[in-house]
Amino acid sequence: MAEAAYLFVLPDPHTRLGAPAAAVGELECMETPALLARLHAHDVTASSDLLRVIPQEAGGSIPEDAERLPIPLSAEEADRVRGACAPRSTAEVEAELRAFRHTNDDRERMISQALARGVPAHRIAQLTGLDPSEVAQTPGA
């Protein structure tokens, strides 16, 4: 586990802080006996809208009367928590950036395949918007 967040029960149901834990998707830590016992002690279920999660860096905004529980997260889980807690416009941009990262990771392979299939480097540059010198530096060029 690479990151952390806080799980807490909202003391006031009208407060909308963080994201409902159920809206984030499955978190590995939610099945631990210690966490299940804590939820039972607060008379709340994992699917309750009152059970909230917030990224560690935003933990200062948790109300003082709410008991916070630090939870470990994988990097992918932390991304989902941040996305669920972010304003919708921010979450959408972050999703686009993650998609770009995956596309960008695959760029070298795609250029190499195009070159191997006979697409000229200048045409690859035109189609991708890449600088022609960047295409020429790709292995297999």
Strand order of the largest sheet: 2-3-1-4
For the largest beta-sheet, the strand count, sense and barrel status come to: 4 strands, antiparallel
How many helical stretches?
6
**N- and C-termini, Cα separation:** 40 Å
Structure characterization notes:
By secondary structure, the protein is of the alpha+beta class. It folds into two domains: about 5-85, no CATH class; about 105-135, no CATH class. It contains six helices and four strands. Strands 2-3-1-4 form a four-stranded antiparallel β-sheet, covered by helices on one side. Helix 2 runs antiparallel to helix 3. The longest helix has 18 residues, at about 90-105. The mean pLDDT is about 85.
How is the secondary structure organized here?
Layout: E1 3-9, E2 19-20, H1 33-41, E3 51-55, E4 68-73, H2 75-85, H3 88-105, H4 107-116, H5 121-128, H6 132-136
Antiparallel strand pairs: 1-3, 1-4, 2-3
In short:
The protein has 141 residues and is α+β, with helices and mostly antiparallel strands. The chain contains 6 helices and 4 strands. Strands 2-3-1-4 form a 4-stranded antiparallel beta sheet, with helices on one face.
Task: Summarize this structure as a short list of keywords or feature phrases.
single chain; 141 residues; alpha+beta; four-stranded antiparallel β-sheet; 4 strands; 43% helix; 14% strand
